[in-house]
Design goal:
The complex is a heterodimer. Chain A is an alpha/beta fold. Chain A contains 30 helices and 23 strands. Classes of the chains: A alpha/beta, B mainly alpha.
Chain lengths: 1051, 122
């Protein structure tokens, strides 16, 4: 049985089955088309033939018939025609033409239907007809001739009768007359003859006439002439051209014509019959043809109907197949797919091997896979939920639309404590927070709730650093939010209430500590200043060596202690965040030098080289807090000197970068480095360096002292100035501390003057001899900045050789302390060279002032100058100018002329009445001198009260007002002057003069009604600028009040 | 050297490079400074911190003009301290300042002598 089933033709797949069905239907269509086409072709052929041949045949036959009948009709016409020759000829031609036409029709017909019997008959009949008509015409001619002959015979008879009568009358021949009488009887016969109808009648009449003639002839003998007449009569009657003959012929011909006519009639009928036969035959043929075609078309029609029927069945079968095998099953499959759980319902569909079964199998596989994965996802989701739930912090995930996706119970707890179930996924962050806010769950501090909410949402959308939120009930929550990759937000809420409390406690403690430190430092520092001052004072007195040593120790210890205390004070300020910068324009070099000056004695004591380089390109003037910058430098320099026993300490400054914008907008970055050749720092200690209370190790503290706060403070200061600090070091080889600050540039007039090329120095050739590379570099750079050329040499011996050779140096700068050969020794050797050695020498030493022995040596050598190290540009320039400059200019003139372009005629151009108020005589003198230089002679007042009085007297244009004065200070005085002025136009321009260059002071003075501010120490440019501003203001005032007439003839 | 030659040079330039004028100024300073120191001393003893502050301020500013750096710095410290009330050990501090002034006076006197001789101090 099984095998039998297996033998079944395999069920076709849906695709092949549909292909097959569609193929069959297509075939049906093709066959239908072919049949229809062939039917049409056959019909077309048949119709064509009908149109082209048979119709023509019928037409030709009809014509033929017509023509034949016309030809037949000629016979009667012929008889009717007149008998003259001409019309006969015409008739004949007509008949021939007809015959030719007939012939051509026959030919045409033959062409159509072939040599059929009917055609042959028509042809023969027409030939016979023609023959008949031809004969007829001949007979007609003959009859006409006979008629004519009869007529002439009768005429002749008449003539004869006339002649005979004539003769008879003339000769009176009785015989003749008798005869004549007799002969007259013949006339009657002749009359009969004319009416005779047939030949036999004529013969009878002839016989009668002949008898009558003979009787007449018997009636008399007649003479010759009569005889002749008789002969003539006989001939005219009975001769070949006699009347009887002609009448007889006429009748004969007439009979022939009658026969021919009858025959003609017969032939014509024959002809008609033949043509009819032809037409019948053609008609029959057409009918046959129609019948044949009709049958064929009918057959094809049946065939077509059958095929169409098959086609319709095929289409219906296909549709049914598609419905049952495809659509219904696909519908089931779709249903199964929609209801995922009913994968089993697809199992039935999967039985089979066609495409849909395959699809169903794939779907079942899919459904199983999805179920499996669903289970896995649910499991991992559960794990995730468990994990999130197990976090001790509140956790929530918001999607990119800020809708809550997932959260744990801690989050719900923190958000809606006591009403956790109100939190559900899908709520927006705004809704959640707004609700919490509305219910007073969040403490927003002083802020408006709406403003707070806005900023909270903004923070949520672009989270930054974690922030802290206070919930009502004193709960503190740290909120840390992060953006996820898909634009959502993860929020972690940590309850830091305890932490916060601890922090607050710690902060309070720290605050207390800082305050305590500040207070203590302050308390300690005050007496320390006393100790230092007094020990200094003590040192300035005459002391025994031992006493001096003790006093110095006191002084040094106090200084050290003060440094530590200052550090602590600074540090406490840093800690408390109270350290503020006071940026002012200053000259960088000055700041550096002041720091180096402080450290130089210590460096000199340890025999260290100390130098600084300002790299080319570094702005010389900057706006920064110079005190704090100096503090950092001092810290680093102190450390460097402290931890270095041999070698050098070098400071360098360079310009790292300026921003894209011009300096006015963007500050530049300056890099300061302090390098030493000291003990260095171990790698693992470097991290701790900048931390508070951290020296490298405790033993360091013991050995080197110090608070250990210096670097921490320096780092804080550098960071406050927009930079940072770092260190590089090789243990045992030294260290290099670098820090950066950001600052705007400022003019540096002093340095600008200092670094100009000097005519006196330009082109001079300088030799620098120093074992220290930093110093060599500094000296060469400085010499070059003044237009000199300079060689720098490390080795004194080589320098000596160079000087001894042809090298033409204009001066030599030599270092006192060199390992190979001391500067003094080198100087002596140079002098020993003779003429070549007679060049100016400048000695550099860190040991200034010298002991007596050295001083003697110096005098012996005859140094042009002795300069203290570290090298600074101005003493060096002074020394060089002393050597090369105008010798006479040296006396009573400073070596450096700082020309400030001040017009001493300023006063004549801008006349002003000026009152200078200062309680200090020196300051008054100084101010008066400076004003004098500008061309002004100022009134002077010794304090605020007398200032107000002086102004009341003098009504000055400008009042230069010192601030700090006894009794009545500048601010009060300015206020009084303002109050006394009647109106705007007469108000003076009041300029505050003060050494209090603190930030915020300026505003204070301007608030007090002052117009401008000039800081002490006085700078002439600044003062002149302020006076110019005064003029501008005055001009404005006058312009404004001119019409009122309150003019100023005062000036 | 307790006198900053650069500062002195600035002052010299300020008044139009007039050695005689500079000499006058130095003389004036040497006259005025002891008066101020006396005032400070009295104020410190009597506890008048306002006077102390102002006098310290004045001396700070003039001392700076003449390049007496250390003197100026000490005065500045005292000025700042006395701004909030009478500093502890005010008198001792004034003593320190007075002591420092002795050094300044000595050096400025030298400078004055140089100027009068027609030489640039140094």
């Amino acid at each position: 049985m099984g095998t039998l089933l297996n033998l079944r033709i395999p069920r076709l797949g849906v695709g092949p089955a549909l292909m097959l069905a569609l193929g069959a239907l297509s075939l049906f269509v093709v066959v239908c088309g072919a049949i229809a086409l062939s039917s049409f072709n056959a019909f077309h052929r048949s119709f064509d033939r009908l149109a082209s041949t048979q119709t023509n045949t019928l037409i030709a036959t009809a014509k033929l018939q017509q023509e034949s009948e016309a030809l037949a009709g000629y016979a009667p016409k012929l008889l009717a025609k007149g008998l003259d020759q001409k019309s006969l000829m015409e008739f004949s031609a007509d008949v021939y033409a007809k015959q030719a036409k007939l012939q051509s029709l026959v030919d045409e017909l033959t062409e159509y239907v072939g040599e059929t019997g009917s055609i042959t008959t028509i042809e023969a009949t027409s030939a016979a007809l023609f023959q008949n008509i031809d004969s007829l015409s001949t007979k007609v001619f003959s009859r006409a001739a006979a008629e004519d002959g009869l007529k002439s015979a009768l005429k002749t008879l008449s003539d004869i009768y006339s002649d005979a009568s004539d003769l008879a009358s003339s000769e009176a021949d009785t015989a003749l007359a008798n005869w004549m009488k007799e002969a007259r009887a013949i006339d009657a016969v002749i009359l009969g003859l004319l009416t005779a109808r047939d030949v036999s009648q004529v013969q009878e009449l002839k016989d009668r006439a002949s008898k009558l003639f003979d009787r007449a002839a018997g009636a008399g003998s007649v003479s010759g002439e009569a005889k002749q007449l008789q002969n003539r009569l006989s001939s005219a009657l009975f001769g070949n051209q006699g009347a009887f003959h002609y009448q007889q012929r006429f009748l004969q011909e007439n009979a022939g014509i009658r026969d021919l006519l009858a025959e003609n009639q017969t032939k014509a009928e024959e002809m008609t019959a033949s043509a009819g036969a032809v037409m019948d035959s053609v008609r029959g043929e057409i009918v046959d043809q129609n019948e044949t075609q009709g049958a064929a078309i009918a057959t094809r029609g049946r065939l077509l109907r059958a095929i169409i029927l098959f086609g319709v069945f095929g289409a219906l079968a296909t549709a049914a197949y598609v419905q049952v095998r495809v659509i219904r099953r696909l519908g089931k499959l779709q249903h199964a797919m929609r209801n995922e759980e009913s994968a089993e319902s697809a199992t039935a569909l999967a039985m089979g091997s066609d495409e849909i079964s395959e699809m169903a199998k794939a779907f079942i596989h899919f459904a199983e896979e999805i179920n499996r994965r669903d289970a896995a996802v649910r499991q991992s989701q559960q794990r995730l939920t468990n994990a999130i739930e197990s976090i001790s912090d509140g956790f929530a995930l918001y999607d990119a639309d800020d809708r809550l996706v997932i959260y744990n119970s801690h989050y719900a707890d923190m958000m809606y404590e006591g009403a956790e179930d109100r939190l559900r996924p899908g709520l927006t962050f705004e809704q959640i927070v707004r609700n919490a806010l509305d219910e007073g769950r969040i403490t927003v501090g002083g802020a408006e709730a709406e403003t707070w909410l806005e900023s909270r949402i903004a923070r949520h959308r672009s989270p930054g650093e974690p922030h802290v939120q206070m919930r009502s009930g004193g709960q503190w929550i740290r909120i840390s939010e992060r953006r996820t990759e898909d634009g959502g937000t993860v929020a972690i809420y940590t309850d830091i209430t305890e932490l916060k409390q601890a922090e607050e406690t710690a902060e309070a403690a720290n605050e207390a500590k800082s305050t305590f430190l500040a207070t203590m430092s302050h308390e300690i520092r005050t007496p320390m200043n006393g100790v230092i001052g007094m020990s200094n004072l003590l040192l300035a007195t005459r002391l025994e060596d031992e006493q001096r040593e003790i006093a110095e120790t006191i002084n040094n210890s106090a200084e050290a202690l003060l440094t530590i205390i200052n550090d602590i004070l600074d540090f406490s300020k840093v800690e408390a965040g109270r350290l503020e910068l006071d940026p002012q324009p200053f000259e960088l070099r000055e700041c550096l030098e002041s720091a180096i000056d402080v450290i130089a004695p210590k460096a000199a004591e340890k025999g260290l080289d100390l130098g600084y380089v300002v790299e080319p390109g570094t702005p010389e003037g900057i706006v920064a807090d110079s005190t704090r910058l100096r503090q950092i430098l001092l810290n680093l320099l102190n450390n460097a000197v402290k931890f270095t026993d041999t070698g050098e300490v070098a400071v360098s400054v360079s310009h790292v970068s300026s921003g894209d914008m011009p300096d006015a907008v963007d500050p530049c970055t300056l890099l300061f480095s302090v390098r030493d050749t000291g003990i260095g720092i171990a790698r693992d200690s470097m991290d701790r360096l900048f931390k508070s209370f951290s020296q490298v190790d405790a033993s360091t503290t013991r050995r080197y002292g110090g608070s250990g706060l210096g670097l921490a403070i320096s780092k804080s200061l550098a960071m406050l100035m927009g930079g940072d600090i770092s260190v590089e070091s090789v243990e045992g080889k030294g260290a290099k501390f670098s820090f950066t600050i950001r600052a705007h540039t400022a003019p540096a007039p002093k340095y600008a003057k200092l670094s100009q090329t000097r005519v006196e120095l330009a082109g001079k050739h300088l030799l620098v001899v120093d074992d220290n590379a930093t110093n060599r570099r500094v000296l060469v750079l400085q010499a070059q900045s003044w237009g000199m050329t300079a060689d720098a040499i490390e080795s004194p011996a080589k320098a000596l050789r160079l000087i001894a050779s042809d090298e033409a140096y204009d001066a030599v700068v030599l270092d006192m302390n060199m390992p190979e050969m001391s500067g003094m020794e080198l100087a002596h050797k140079i002098r020993a060279l003779g003429r070549r050695g007679e060049l100016p020498l400048i000695l550099l030493s860190s040991l200034v002032p010298f002991g007596d022995r050295v001083r003697k040596d110096i005098d012996a050598v005859g140094f042009a100058a002795v300069l203290a190290k570290p090298i600074k540009p101005s003493p060096l320039l002074s020394a060089l100018m002393g050597i090369f400059g105008d010798q006479t200019a040296r006396a009573a003139k400073p070596a450096i002329r700082r020309e400030v372009e001040i017009a001493s005629t300023m006063a004549s151009g801008l006349p002003l009445r000026i009152l200078l108020v200062d309680d200090n005589a020196t300051n008054r003198l100084l101010g008066a001198k400076v004003l004098e230089r500008l061309g002004y002679r100022a009134d002077l007042a010794v304090d605020g009260r007398s200032g107000v009085a002086s102004y009341a007297d003098g009504q000055h244009d400008v009042i230069l007002m010192d601030i700090e004065m006894p009794d009545m200070d500048g601010i009060e005085a300015a206020r009084l002057i303002r109050a006394s002025g009647p109106h705007e136009a007469s108000q003076p321009f009041i300029v505050a003069l003060t050494a209090n260059a603190m930030a915020g002071d300026r505003e204070r003075y301007l608030d007090a009604g002052m117009d401008d501010y000039v800081s002490k120490p006085l700078r002439i440019e600044e003062l002149a600028a302020s006076l110019r501003r005064a003029v501008v203001m005055r001009t404005h005032q006058r312009a404004a009040t001119e019409p009122s007439g309150a003019t100023a003839e005062r000036s | 050297m307790s006198i900053d030659r650069e500062a002195l040079l600035d002052l010299f330039n300020l008044i139009g490079e007039d050695p005689q004028g500079l000499a006058e100024l130095i003389e004036s300073f040497l006259e005025q400074a002891p008066l101020l120191l006396d005032e400070m001393q009295r104020a410190a003893e009597s506890g008048d911190n306002a006077v102390l502050c102002r006098a310290a301020h004045t001396l700070k500013s003039t001392a700076r003009d003449f390049g007496a750096k250390q003197l100026s710095v000490l005065c500045e410290t005292l000025e700042k301290l006395s701004r909030q009330g009478l500093p502890d050990h005010a008198a001792a501090q004034v003593d320190v300042i007075s002591a420092t002034y002795i050094l300044t006076e000595r050096e400025l006197g030298g400078c004055l002598a140089d100027l009068k001789r027609g030489e640039w101090p140094g």
